[in-house]
Predict the structure.
Amino acid sequence: MARPLRIEFPGAWYHVMNRGAGRRDVFRTVEQREYFLGLLADTHGRFNAEWHAYCLMGNHYHLLLRTPEGNLQRIMRHVNGLYTQFFNRCEGLDGPLFRGRYKAVLVEADTYWLGLTRYIHHNPSEAGMADDPAEYPWSSCRAYLGLVPAPSWLSTGYTLNAIGGNAPHQRYAAYLSGDSDEALKRFFSQQRLSPILGSESFRQRTLAGMEPDIDHPDLRSARVLPSAEQIIESTALYFGVPPASLYQSKRGRAVRSPARAMAMHLCQMVANFKLAEIATLFKLANYASAGAGIRDIRKQIAENAGLAEAEKAIILDLTPLD
C-alpha cells in the first residue's frame, strides 16, 4: 500500500490528524491528555515546532503547526512514538495505538490557516461533545478566547494579530461564532484526503520539479503536466536558441549548447514522457539514444551549478501562476 505523501520544507504549515486503530479511544484520562500536550511543548523546544492550534478528541486529534526547519516527520515521530509508549504503559497494552501513520495536509497558510483554527476548535461541538467550543477544555480554543493563559509553546499571536483590533480575544470569539468554511468541511470529508490544501497555483509550485516516487503515486497525478512544446519553448528561451533547433541533432565540436539534452530531460522529469516518445519527438534513432542523452545531462546537472540553476529556472517558468 502506498504511504501518504510527505512534503517537507522550511516554513511549511500542516494540519495533522491521527485516529486510534479500530477507532478506539486514544485519550482516556486527564493524565494522558496532559502527557500528550507535554510532548507538544517538548517538540517546541527540541525541534522548533510552532504549534498554532490543537484539539484532543476521544479517538483522534487535530493539530495545526508550522515547521521553520522543515522537520515534520521528526516532530511527529517523537510525538506519536512516545505517546504510544506512555498510553500502553498506562493501559497495560502492547502494540500500535494509532490506525497508521498520521495524516498531514500541507496548507497554503495565507488562505486557510485562520479558517483551520475555527474548523479545529469547532470539532467538539460538531461531535456533540460540547455545546460551545469555549466549554471544551482539551483544545486551544480557550486560550484564543483569553479564558486561560496560553502556554509558552502555543503560538496564538499569529492568528490574533491577523484578527486585529484592540480586543483580539473578543474579535476571535465573534469569528468563532460563525460557521466553519464549507470548503474546508468538504475537503476533510473526502474519503481519500488530498495531501495539499491550497490553490491550484500553490499545488503546482509545491509539486513542480519533484522526482517521482514509487511510494507516492498521487504526486504525479496531482500535477498539471506541461506540453512538450512548452518545455521546448522555455528551454530555448533560457539558453537563447531557436526552439526549432532543439528538435534536430547537430554534429560537430562547435555544438556545445546543452539546451536540447535539457529539454529531453525535462520532458521525462516534469511531463512524464516515455523514452520512446522522447526519441520520436527529438528525431533520435531509438529510445536507447534518448536514455543515454538524458543520463548524460543529469550527470552534468549534478556536477555543474550553472546547469542545476538552469534546470530550476526552466521548471519555475513551467509552473502555472495565479
